Amino acid sequence: MAVECRVATRGRPMARVGDRGVEAGLVSVPGMGQEGGASGRGRCVGRLTQAPREEGPSSGGQFGHPGTVAAGPVQVTAIQGDVTQAHEVAAAVAGAHVVIHTAGLVDVFGRASPETIYEVNVQGTKNVIEACVQTGTRFLVYTSSMEVVGPNIKGHPFYRGNEDTPYEAIHRHPYPCSKAQAERLVLEANGRKVHGGLSLVTCALRPTGIYGEGHQIMRDFYHQGLRLGGRLFRAIPASVEHSRVYVGNVAWMHVLVAQELEQRAALMGGQVYFCYDESPYKSYEDFNMEFLGPCGLRLVDTRLLVPYWLLMLLATLNALLQWLLRPLLLYAPLLNPYTLAVANTTFTVSTNKAQRHFGYKPLFSWEDSRTRTIRWVQAVEGSAP
Ligand SMILES: NC(=O)c1ccc[n+]([C@@H]2O[C@H](COP(=O)([O-])OP(=O)(O)OC[C@H]3O[C@@H](n4cnc5c(N)ncnc54)[C@H](O)[C@@H]3O)[C@@H](O)[C@H]2O)c1
Ligand SMILES: CC(C)CCC[C@@H](C)[C@H]1CC[C@H]2[C@@H]3[C@H](O)C=C4C[C@@H](O)CC[C@]4(C)[C@H]3CC[C@]12C
């Protein structure tokens, strides 16, 4: 059975997911993305339902009636709504068998206020849980983040860790704090009685840094490199390693969980799973060069020219400027004390929990993921930054 499912990721990419089906579900579909501003309001959710058999496979989806796309045996209906509005969420969730809650405000650059981040990520998640309870939906999959674990404010490395690795998860930044609170709410809701008397089964997926088609920050680095005459300047030592995961594999993991949660409720209910694949461990910048290198950029080693204390000073200056300029304009550069700390702290995951619990294997090999991402960067070439 071929299924095409669309999921929201940074900068509105659409990830194709193939081979196995999901019977019904509810996901966030791209509506805003990073470029769309950071208000976090009025976005989309989408419903996946089994399309009538006679429709047959479709080569990319045709609009049936407004907001509905038939993709193979799956029909995706887009319903625009705002997760902070409980009644809109309940209306979208009603009748769904599985809910995949990926909607969130991803902001580590200070574009949105902490209040808005909490409203979308925490209150929005409460609304999704309550909607499941009220409407009798029994299965809920939450897109959490590696950031609920770390890196922590002490900058402790998390090296080849798994879901059971002890780590002091202490945060101050609104984004990881909100994701951690939301994840806790979802896991605590496991076992709650839903309308009709059955129990809710929940679990959370924790992607590491997602890359792939539509990755806005990759696009920003690419355009910056072009502006600098084909060069990017290394800021972080190559020895600081990060785990990254391809968007299509993140999507695939969500589909598998949605499929398997009912059959394996006792094992999977209340569990967390890191999202992982075969992407190599590398520093953030070296990893990006896997795609930007073949597109003509090179990474110039300037470690001696730009020492860490200078980067920290620049990051602090950026934060100060952001605060000073806020009444006049939004100044939100990539470099701030938080992003510098994340970029400069090793966070690598080594686990097979998803494979053990629900048979996950990456759908896209590292080679496929790399090729697809390079092709996308090449297509971005020449487009306006
Ligand atoms: N990008 C990453 O590296 C990464 C890593 C780990 C986890 N995540 C998580 O994955 C999920 C998707 O993130 P992304 O990177 O694709 O970001 P994204 O900004 O591309 O997608 C977020 C989606 O949420 C929707 N949304 C925002 N506010 C909403 C609201 N009030 N109501 C309804 N929908 C709303 C947006 O329209 C967008 O489609 C988020 O929950 C994020 O925390 C992302
Ligand atoms: C120091 C500068 C030269 C480089 C700045 C890079 C910085 C913007 C990058 C580095 C690491 C990135 C984060 C990491 O990949 C994981 C996540 C988790 C996810 O839930 C949200 C996005 C986030 C925080 C990435 C944001 C961009 C970061 C900080």
UniProtKB/TrEMBL annotation:
| Primary localisation category | endoplasmic reticulum
Q: Per the record, a Pfam family? A: 3Beta_HSD
Tell me where in or outside the cell this protein is found: Endoplasmic reticulum membrane
Q: GO CC annotations?
A: endoplasmic reticulum membrane
Named in its record, the pathway it takes part in is: Steroid biosynthesis; Lipid metabolism; steroid biosynthesis
User: Topology versus the membrane, per the UniProt entry?
Assistant: Multi-pass membrane protein
Lineage top rank: taxon = Eukaryota
Q: Which GO terms describe its biological process?
A: steroid biosynthetic process
What InterPro entries does the database record attribute to this sequence?
Answer: 3Beta_OHSteriod_DH/Estase, NAD(P)-bd_dom_sf, NAD(P)_dehydrat-like
Query: Which keywords does UniProt give here?
Result: Endoplasmic reticulum, Lipid metabolism, Membrane, NAD, Oxidoreductase, Steroidogenesis, Transmembrane, Transmembrane helix
Q: Which reaction does it catalyse?
A: 7alpha-hydroxycholesterol + NAD(+) = 7alpha-hydroxycholest-4-en-3-one + NADH + H(+); (24S)-7alpha-dihydroxycholesterol + NAD(+) = (24S)-7alpha,24-dihydroxycholest-4-en-3-one + NADH + H(+); 7alpha,25-dihydroxycholesterol + NAD(+) = 7alpha,25-dihydroxy-4-cholesten-3-one + NADH + H(+); (25R)-cholest-5-en-3beta,7alpha,26-triol + NAD(+) = (25R)-7alpha,26-dihydroxycholest-4-en-3-one + NADH + H(+)
Q: What is its EC number?
A: 1.1.1.181
Where does the record place the 3-beta hydroxysteroid dehydrogenase/isomerase domain?
76-301
Question: Does the keyword field hold Endoplasmic reticulum?
Answer: yes
The protein's role, per its UniProt record: The 3-beta-HSD enzymatic system plays a crucial role in the biosynthesis of all classes of hormonal steroids. HSD VII is active against four 7-alpha-hydroxylated sterols. Does not metabolize several different C(19/21) steroids as substrates. Involved in bile acid synthesis. Plays a key role in cell positioning and movement in lymphoid tissues by mediating degradation of 7-alpha,25-dihydroxycholesterol (7-alpha,25-OHC): 7-alpha,25-OHC acts as a ligand for the G protein-coupled receptor GPR183/EBI2, a chemotactic receptor for a number of lymphoid cells.
- Protein known as: 3 beta-hydroxysteroid dehydrogenase type 7
Source organism of the structure: Lynx canadensis
What does the record give as the organism's lineage?
A: Eukaryota, Metazoa, Chordata, Craniata, Vertebrata
Q: Which gene encodes it?
A: HSD3B7
